Structure formats: structure tokens, C-alpha cells
Amino acid sequence: MIFLTRRATFSASHYYCNESWTAEKNEQVFGRCANRNGHGHNYTLEVTVGGETDPVTGFVVDLKWLKDVIEREVLAAFDHRHLNLEVPEFAKLIPTTENIAIAAWKRMEPAIAAAGGARLTCVRIYETPEIFAEYRGPQGQVFVRGVEYRGEA
Amino acid sequence: MLSASHRLHSDALSAEENRVVYGKCNNPHGHGHNYVVEVLVGGPVDPETGMVVNLADLDEVVRTRVTDRFDHTNLNLDPLFANRVPTTENLCRAVFGLLKEAMQAGELEYVRVEETENNFFEYRGE
Q1: Which one of A8, A9, A65, B75 has the largest count of C-beta atoms within 10 Å of its C-beta?
Q2: Is residue A153 in a domain?
């Protein structure tokens, strides 16, 4: 199996707030991220798929196709948006980098699985160059050689 | 880093199919990349040297096996790609194979080849 990773970037704003907590507790836990006026990041998204190379084309997947999937499924929804206010997943879920990685996975996984070639194996989101969150699917290990895919139903 | 040219073209496909599948990469005159190769080796730390491997030795293996072979060349003309399209997937596997031959069993963990800053490929030998 060979792994292919494609990078993309998007810019978005967000704030952290747990609605069941007081303003004081939100500020205590989330610090500057709790500012309800929001703030923003330039996020870098890395999408890794794994599979066998096609004996005719030498490709795992067509890079342009993967770029289109990322743009259609994730960037169209996240780029230049306020994540809390404009992205449905985050109406009640705090848009931490962890949750953004999981949401991006859920958005892309069906399209990649439906194509029938490589499988999505990892989504990594950099919030800043120093911080990233990585999600490898609901089972932690999405694809084990010889074992049937165990994605989320 | 190695700078090389390639053309993505499969003899199993028609001229039109090649253009559709590979797009700009099928340009008959080829094109090039600055490939960045990352080599990860693993193993116990030698109690005498404090090293997993001697970096100078690793550099030498990568230089003689990989860089000298591919840098400033046309990948399509390398015997390894006589019957294989020089996609970066296949380059990554070729680099892994060349390095594995020169290393001790189990030493080479993975090879990563960056084709551009937005695309990279990783092969772990299985």
C-alpha cells in the first residue's frame, strides 16, 4: 500500500464556547479563544489516502480528482466562513481543531469510499504551524490490510 | 532533493486516453520537479555511539543509491521505468527498493517523496 497526501489551505473564523457553562468558566477553560467576537486562522489541511497503484496509470488516485473532492466537500463549506455561525456541524459542536479534523473526515470519506480505489486514512489540520490535530477515522485505524473496512455507519 | 524530468504516459493507453488521464503531465516533451526525498530509519540506539544509524553513512547510501541515479535525469529513461510510468507513487517505491537493498533488514521504516509542496507520497514497503 502506498499513501498519497494532498495539502490545501483555508481561512476561517471561530470562537470556543460551551453553552452549558457560564461566561467565566468558558473564559477560564478556553482563554482568548472564548472571545465571542471570534478570531481567525489560516488552516492547512492534509488529506492522506492509501491504496495500491493502478498497474496501467501508476496512480493511487488522480491528484486532480482528490483536489476537487477536497475543494467541493471541505473548502467550499469552510473557506472564508465563520465556522460557528455558517457550518452546520458546529452549530452545537465547538469548532476546535480536533472537531474540524473529524468534520472534514466525515465530509470527504463517503466521496472517497464511493470512488472505489484508495481509502481515506488520515486527515490532519494545522491551526497554526505549531499545532495540528490528526484523525484516522472512527476506529483509529481505518484500513487494515486484509480486514474489511470498518467505517462509521 | 533531486531535480528530474518525467512524462506520464502509459503504452497500455491510446494517445487520447493518455491525454485524458494524465492531462498536462502527458506533454510529449516532459516536465520536471524538485523532488524532496525523506528517509526514515528506525532501530535501537547503539549504546556506544548513541546513534540509530550514522547520519554520514545514511547520507552516503542515499547519495550513491538515489541522488546520483536520478538527479538531473529524465526518469522515463531509467531502466526502472522502462515498463512502469514514472509517477511519484512509482518513484517512491523505486527509491524504497533501492535503499532497502543497501540497508540492514528492518532498518528502513519509510520513504516519502514530495513532488510539490502540496503533494507527497509515502511507502512503507508493504
Answers
A1: B75
A2: no
Is A140 domain-assigned? no
Architecture per CATH, domain B2-123, reads as: 2-Layer Sandwich (3.30)
Dump pLDDT digits (tens) for A29-66. 999 999 999 999 999 999 999 999 999 999 999 999 99
Q: How many domains does chain A have?
A: 1
pLDDT tens per residue, range B62-117: 999 999 999 999 999 999 999 999 999 999 999 999 999 999 877 999 999 999 99
Specify whether the CB–CB gap between A15 and A23 falls below 8 A: no
Within a domain: A145: no
Which residues are registered as beta bridge partners of A41? A12
Distance from CA of A68 to the nearest CA of B (A): 14
Contact present, A47 and A121 (Cβ < 8 Å): no
Q: Which residue of B has its CA nearest to A9?
A: B118
Q: Would you call A7 and B122 a contact, using CB atoms and an 8 Å cutoff?
A: no
CATH number at residue A8: 3.30.479.10
Which of A34-38, A104-108, A137-141, B21-25 has the largest mean confidence? A104-108
- Structural domain for A91, as ranges: 2-135
Most B-contacting residue of A4, A62, A145 (CB-CB within 10 A), to test interface: A4
Burial A129-144 (b: 16+ CB within 10 A, else e): eeebbebbbeeeebbe
- How many residues in total does chain A contain? 153
